[in-house]
Task: structure prediction
Amino acid sequence: MEHPWLYAESIRSASRAGRAGDLAVIFDHKRELLALGLWDPDSPIRIRVLHRGKPRPIDRSFFAERLRDAMALRAELPDQGTTGFRVVNGESDGLPGLVLDRYETTFVLKLYTTAWLPHLPEVLAAIDEVLAPERVVLRLARAIAELTEKRAGLKEGAILAGTDLPGPLVFRENGLRFRCDPVRGQKTGFFLDQRENRARVGGLARGKRVLNAFSYTGGFSLYAARGGAASVVSLDSSRAALDEARENFALNADVPEVARAKHECVCEDAWSALARFAGERRRFELVVVDPPAFAKAKREIGAALSAYEKLAELACALLAPGGELVMASCSARIDAGALAKAIQAGAAGAGRRLDERLRTAHASDHPVRFPEGAYLKCIWLRAAD
Result:
């Protein structure tokens, strides 16, 4: 049994009803011990596997061991100028349903199941022992926010340990400085999973006109500017996100390439803006399209693929001859092959031909050790006409 989840329908019998966070001891049909996990009666994922093999205590020492193992895999990142990264990627780091991100000395603990609530004191003690944080901020998946407040009196954005956070903080990623708000920002404050893809965009940008659609706070934009882009357009429907993008550029004004690049922020729905740019005959040598998740449920897959196809069609209308398109999907239910097919269909609709060059996924601090964990995919293409 290598998969970290046991669904309710796969369990033949249970000795008692159990409460969220109870330790489940899993036996096979021969009554031989298989694993230990967290019991969650509120979720179709009834058990999240913590440990396989011989019995052992699930306590502060266990959690500290998992944290040390996870940090060992990421030990080189601070030396590479990165002080914002994922420390624990849930199931793939042996702590299912729990994510821990670092921003300098602030750590953000995000929970996806209430099964972790009874274990929070020991988890926090392990974090303090291994990581010595200035503070720990709690973030919650929407599905468990109400239950968490009801059962533990904890709200989204609560400070679990350390001093209050007065506002956004600044961290470094590959030497660039970014602002983030761990209490209110999307995900845990920043899209850390795209770090390596952002760096790759920076390597493609020299001398080019770059468009970053669904830019949020301008991560791809700033890397493109440092990479020597002639101009960068950050396009997003959120004025607050674009204000943060401007702040991020200002934080890095001491980088000559960033200071030289012309940075334009466009606050508009991406769909209408892309169509408008085409009507204005604007052209870009590099277009990045990184939209939010379109398919959060199986029934949404068809509509999501249609949306990716339309976005690709709109983006291709803006590509200069030989220009490059980078398109990402963070929908776990959309696989890379389906995304690539949708992009090519969109290109055909725009009368363009694209050569696929590369497929990439999560940054190295977001390891994936089971199929459902592979949500991020990125397709890199070049106009062949």
